[in-house]
Design a protein that fits this description.
It is found in: Cell membrane; Cellular thylakoid membrane; Membrane. By secondary structure, the chain is mainly alpha-helical. The chain is about 70% helix and about 5% strand. Helix 3 crosses helix 6 and helix 5 runs antiparallel to helix 6. The N and C termini lie far apart (about 75 Å).
C-alpha cells in the first residue's frame, strides 16, 4: 500500500466531522456570543444547582441521606483544598470562589467525556465541554487574576504594588511579566488538555469504535479531574501569595 492509498483511506473516513474552531454565534446588537459555549455552560450550572438542591436535608430528617452525604464529602474536600493553600485564617473567605472554580471545571471536563454532545445538533459547530473552548478557560483565568489582585489590594491598598520592586527594583519587569504569564498558563493548560483529550478519543472512536477507546476515556476522566484540581490549587496559591506578602510585612 502506498502513502497515497493510505491518505485516500483516511479521507474516506468520517474524520471531517471533528471540527475545531467553528462556532454557533448569537448576535445581540454588535456583539457575537458563542452560543454552544453558553448552552453547555448553562447545562453544567443547572447540574450543579440540582445537586445542591438534592443535597438539602428534608424537613425533620435527622440522619443524612445518600446525596447529602456525598455533597458533605465534596464540601470537606473543597475545605481541605482551600485550607491547604490559604491557611486556617483566610480559607473561609475564599472557599466559595475556589470551590466554585473546582466544581465548574470538574463537571465541565467530565461532561465532555460522559455526555454524547455530538448527538445534539445545532445550526453551526457542535456542543462540547465548556472548557473545550479557549474563551471559557481565559475567562476563568482572568477571574483568578482579578481575585488575587483583589486579595492583595484589600489587604495593602495601593501599597500592594510595592511588591513589584521587592527585594530589588530591577525585578519590576519580571514581576509584571509574571502577572501576564499566570492567566496564560492557567488558560492554555486547561484548554489544551481538554481539547487534546476529546480529539484523541473522537478520532479513535471513528477508527476503532469498539473497546479500544475505553481505556483512553477512563484516562481522560482521571486527567480531567486532575486539571480541575490543578487549576483550583493554583488559584488558591496565587491568592495566598498576594495575602502572604502583607502578613510578612506585619510580622517582619
Amino acid at each position: 500500500m502506498t502513502m497515497l492509498d493510505g491518505l485516500s483511506i483516511l479521507n474516506s473516513l468520517p474524520l471531517a466531522a471533528l471540527e475545531v474552531g467553528k462556532h454557533w454565534y448569537w448576535e445581540i446588537g454588535n456583539l457575537k456570543l458563542h452560543g454552544q459555549v453558553f448552552l453547555a455552560s448553562w447545562f453544567v450550572i443547572v447540574l450543579l444547582v440540582i445537586a445542591s438542591l438534592a443535597a438539602k436535608p428534608k424537613q425533620g430528617q435527622m440522619v443524612p441521606g445518600g446525596m447529602q452525604n456525598f455533597m458533605e464529602y465534596v464540601l470537606e474536600f473543597l475545605r481541605d483544598l482551600a485550607k491547604n493553600q490559604l491557611g486556617e485564617k483566610h480559607y473561609r473567605q475564599w472557599l466559595p470562589f475556589i470551590g466554585t472554580l473546582f466544581l465548574f471545571i470538574f463537571v465541565s471536563n467530565w461532561s465532555g467525556a460522559l455526555i454524547p454532545w455530538k448527538l445534539i445538533t445545532i445550526p453551526e459547530g457542535e456542543l462540547a465541554a465548556p472548557t473545550n473552548d479557549i474563551n471559557t478557560t481565559v475567562a476563568l483565568a482572568l477571574l483568578t487574576s482579578l481575585a488575587y489582585f483583589y486579595a492583595g489590594l484589600s489587604k495593602k491598598g495601593l501599597g500592594y504594588f510595592a511588591n513589584y520592586i521587592q527585594p530589588i527594583p530591577i525585578l519590576l519587569p519580571i514581576k509584571i511579566l509574571e502577572d501576564f504569564t499566570k492567566p496564560l498558563s492557567l488558560s492554555f493548560r486547561l484548554f489544551g488538555n481538554i481539547l487534546a483529550d476529546e480529539l484523541v478519543v473522537g478520532v479513535l472512536v471513528f477508527l476503532v469504535p469498539l473497546l479500544v477507546p475505553l481505556p483512553l476515556m477512563a484516562l481522560g476522566l482521571f486527567t480531567s479531574a486532575i486539571q480541575a484540581l490543578v487549576f483550583a490549587t493554583l488559584a488558591g496559591a496565587y491568592i495566598h501569595e498576594a495575602i502572604e506578602s502583607e502578613e510578612e510585612e506585619e510580622h517582619g
